[in-house]
Amino acid sequence: MAGKAIIMSKVKQIIRLRKKGVALQSIAKGVGISRNTVKKYLRLIEVKGYDHQELLALEDEQLEELLAEPDQISEARQQALYAIFPDVEKELNRTGVNRWILWGEYKEKHPDDYGYAHFCHHFKVWLNSGEATMHFDHQPGDKLYIDFAGKKLQWVDRSTGEVHPAEVFVGVLGYSQLTYVEAVASQKKEDFISTTENALHYFGGVSQVIIPDNLKSAVTKANKYEAELNADFADFANQYNTCILPARSYKPRDKAPVENAVKIVYSRIYAPLRDKIFYSLKELNEAILLLLENYNNRPFQKTPQSRREKFEQQEKEKLMILPTKRYEIKKFKSATVMKNSHVYLSEDKHYYSVPYRYIGKKVKAVYTSNHLSVYYNKERIAFHKRKAKAFGYTTIKEHLPSSHQFVSDWNPDKFLSWAAGIHPAVKEYISVIITSKTYPEQAYRSCVGILSQEKKVGRRRLINAIERAIHYGAYNYKIIDRILKGGLDRIKEEDPGQQSSLPFHTNIRGAEHYK
Length: 515
Known about the structure:
Radius of gyration: 36 Å
CATH superfamily of the largest domain: Ribonuclease H-like superfamily/Ribonuclease H
Number of strands: 15
CATH topology of the largest domain: Nucleotidyltransferase, domain 5
Strand content: 5-15%
CATH architecture of the largest domain: 2-Layer Sandwich
Structural class: alpha+beta
Shape: flat
Number of helices: 19
Helix content: 40-55%
Number of domains: 5
């Protein structure tokens, strides 16, 4: 992946994992990029002197801009440093020798090279990169293992009798083995992220690392060396300030705690429920929760302490704080700002305003289930709550040019009220025009044109023209305009029961001609 840009969610994962002391090779496998790319970004952050916590607080667009066009770092200097590390490691085993002394000796030979902090940092990286296996010494609050059970539960639709299978999510904390179980409709991304989030809220905190299996909702592309994380799951982890390290394919040891938990869940939860019928997913989960509490409160076989007691006494305080808001999956859409200063979101069939100076520009809409943001050149230019009203407009008046701001008030009630103030027949006419259109907005300009005629020709003439148009069943602006321009509103309607006689004309042959 050298030379290719990576998404900023992965950069944040790299920073978090590195802060926790995870080896470069493990980071590369967990994040799904090459080890050299991991080293490149860590070196760039180090050389530029950026604070890790400040980088994590930035929006993805800001972080991307900050790390754009990385400086060219001398590889020769680092290679020379790494070449002496085998000797440094040997020297550290000698009595009285420490890193400070060895760095001093290094500095005498290379006065312009690395300072003490960078020397120690690179030595630690070198040590970690030489590790052959991952260690699973569980520390309080360190790891949460998650997976779906291989066997499903089920519930029955009471009205139809249809049986619905339910996937069963299992999450277990590595240290206390406190377990969370939930039945969901599927293993799809939305359900997977939701249950993972529910597990964190059940525990009341966030582990340092989450270790999933290689299911599609967590890992877009499984690979023995470089697994590619699902972008939404990585984004979820960033909001919860945690890291994702997928288990290696065909390496059950990587997720042994959850593998064992699934086996126990079969006997402690599946077995007691095997003969019961549930008529909703909610009923099923209520039954699961009761059995789960009994399981978590049951003492271990070899110790009198339960999972819950071990968690409360030794692990709970080690978990990180939950964020104030729940995670919402983000979706992205490119759009062009229309001439009316709005962008169209097809999923809602709804229009959202942006500042008029971006008319004609290509923008990116980022939206969740509740909100929509519009970005131009990585800068947010609009923010709205999502609306479900089809073909409606959500408009901030300041987004429109002053000459067009009154248009933001256009709606059926406005025009019907305006028309009623002229005459009931006018209101009736405008109502028909509005309801006859597939989208009410298509009728608004016609309504403005018709109702504005009052100022041009007077109320009486407009009423007469509309009554004449109603008589002929013609409902549009053009017919009203023709009636007024032709003065037809001043002509009294003829009685359809009377037949007017034709005037004499020399070119008319008459009945005699055809005898």
